[in-house]
Every structure is written in C-alpha cells, then in structure tokens.
Predict the 3D structure of the following.
Amino acid sequence: MNLHVLKRIGFVLALAFVGLLFGCSKQDSTIVIWTNRPEFASYAELFNSTHQDMKAVVVYKENPSASLPPQKNEVPPDLIVGPWLKSSSAKNYYSPLDKIFAKDEEDEGLDRSIFYPQLLEYGVVNEKQYFLPISYNLPAMVCLKDNEDLLPNQHVLTLDAIKECTAQFNSTDRYGDFSTIGFAPSWDYDFVYEASKILGAGYEQDENGFKWNDYGLNATVEYMRKWTEEVNQSTTLEQNFMFNYLYMPKYRWVSTKKCLMAFMTSDELFSLSNEFSQDLTFRWLITDAEKFPVEDDIVMMGMYKKSRNKKLAEEFFYWFNSMETQQALIERSEKMNLDSKSFGITGGFSCIKEVNISVFPSHYRVLLENLPTEENMEFGSVLPSGWKEIKKQVFIPYFSQRCDTDADPEGYTTLEDLIANYNRTAW
C-alpha cells in the first residue's frame, strides 16, 4: 500500500467520520486535524486507542495552510499540520500556543527545553509561539559502501569536497568518451537549488510574495557552470551520459558504478527499504562554515483560531510531544510493514532533541554518532505556503537554463517571466 493510496483512504474515512459529527452527541470530544502528512492516519489511530473520552479524525489537505479559512459548510479543523504554515497572515487563522508551555518546574505544560531552540523560534510570530515544530530533514550525498574510501570525511561534505572527489572518479574509454562520471550538476537541479541556499540565494517571504538575493543566484550559476566545464566538459556530455546510464531512480545510480554520488534528502534516504539501502552510505551536505542546512519544508503544528475544541487540541499537543509517544509512533510505523515506509516522525527527524539522540539510532543504526548538534543546524527564512510550486516552476527552470553550458542566452526565459507564468497558474 503506497502513500498515495493511504492519502485516498485516509481522506475518504475522514469525510465519512466528519459527516457523522453533526449528528453525534460527542461532537465536542472530537479533534479534527487537517494535514498533508499521511502518517497522521496512523498517529490518530494510536491516539484514539489510548484516549477513551476523545477521538482524533484526520482530513487530508494537499496544502493545509492554504486551505484556510474552511469552505462554507465544511467542518473546521482544530489542528493544522504541515509545512509552510508560518506566514504574515498566520495570526488571522491561528491561536498562540504559549499557554501550553510550562511556566515553571511545577507546571504540567510542555517544557521548552526539550525542543531545538532554533526550531521553536521558527514558529514564533510577533513574539508569540503560534506553531510547534514537529519534524525536519537534511540534505545528503549517497554513494556505495564499496566507494567510501574515495570520500574525504566520515560524516560530511562541502560543495568543494563533492566537486573534488567526484572529479577524481571520472574516467574515459579508449575513444575518449566518459565511462564514469562522479557527479554532474545537470543531473539533479534539486541539488543545484540546495547549493544555491548555501551560496547565498537567500529565499524569503515578503509582502509581494517572495524575494531572493541576486548575488547568490548568480554565484550559484557561475559555480555550477565552472564545475561542469572544468570536470565534465559540457552540460551536453553530462546529459548524454545520464541518458545512457542513469535512467533509473537516484538510489540506484551509484549501484551501476557509473557514478560516485547521488543527492538525496534524509526522508528519501531513510525511507528506502533494506533491499535498496543495504549497500549505500551517505555524507551530510554542509556549508563552508560547517553548518547543516535544514530543508525548507519543516513540518509544524498549529491550532486553528476558531477551533471548537481547544482544550482537547491542547491535550493532543501534550500527548504527541512526548518522547514515549514518538517512540511508540516510530515502532508502530515499523510494525505496519507497508510497502512504502515513512522515516521517523512525519517523514523526518523529530524536533524533540532526546528522540533523535536516544530513539533514532536504535532504529536507524547509521545515525549512531552521526547526528548534527543543535548548534550546527542552519535554518532558512520563512517561505510562502506555495513555495514547493514556486521552486518547481520558477527557480528549477531558471537554474536548468542558466547552468547549461551549451544553451543560447538568447533563449533564456527571464526570472520575471518565470514568476509571471507561475502567478498565472497559481490562481
């Protein structure tokens, strides 16, 4: 059963359940959760099995935050879970959560110290805690264990280190054609986008939608073009090589032994079955300042301002954000034996420090002594709720054109036109 099927089943069941709410005398004991994370169907089941006087129902929303306010005659949510929740209009739809935190040692509320402080700060709007962080992911480079001795560090790689060690993997046949290429920027523009964050692109939400740093974009284009020209000769050769040898999923690229590395995020990597991952190893992608750039789509949890059951929603916060609960959720996910497994908590590392330190290594052995410390994590700025599509329709095409060493500049689509095209399709 894949995640798409889970979404469909969870959505249908949720509709049926919500349809019963109006005629149910226990309506005030039900928590409605809007989310795009299919794992929450399982989480709600565990919550319901351990709470006799209250129930949680999950309604699937492709973009939960953008679905507010609810449509007419739609049962409103109590909790919203997903990425991109934080925005300039957050205070119009969400309630502050400060009261769920303990004021002193004798208070039974949540202890702020269990969370990564940078992630808690990420959920602050106008000096109030509107969102609670749930999970995050990190970028990584994957290679075969057999090729591990070609990598310069046991745990991390900078962009320069990737370029250097993949260049050494390149080889040609007797005709001068590439027989192996370590890695090529044009193979994966998600990698190029990740590199642009490291090189100063500075993506950020603003009053006009979003903004960026032109210097960082230009630095990224220059860096990638130079990489291609110095190491792989041209984008055309990179693309031809990919067409001939790397026509399978990324996790299988390195198994061909035709390339050294592939780019993956931690949720992609740790969701692979043992069959596919047993021969793989990885290195975290870091900045030159040895910081770990956290992926954009940090999953957050917020409370709808017009929630009908705020007290019960608060109880879900307390239940969910405990080490015991999250350990049970991880174990439950493993026991379900789904064809498509999910990594960790809502597909990522937990935002509760002790869960990552004490629980994750026992389920993901490769993380033992291989987790970044909270001081070394680097978080980007707040991004708009449509950022996934903005990235796909604006910045990925921008880099694919500008980084192509063989493209005619006369044929470039300007960034302004890419944004205009996105705005036409977004509405």
Summary: The chain has 16 helices and 19 strands. The first helix runs from residue 3 to 21. The first strand starts at residue 30 and ends at 35.
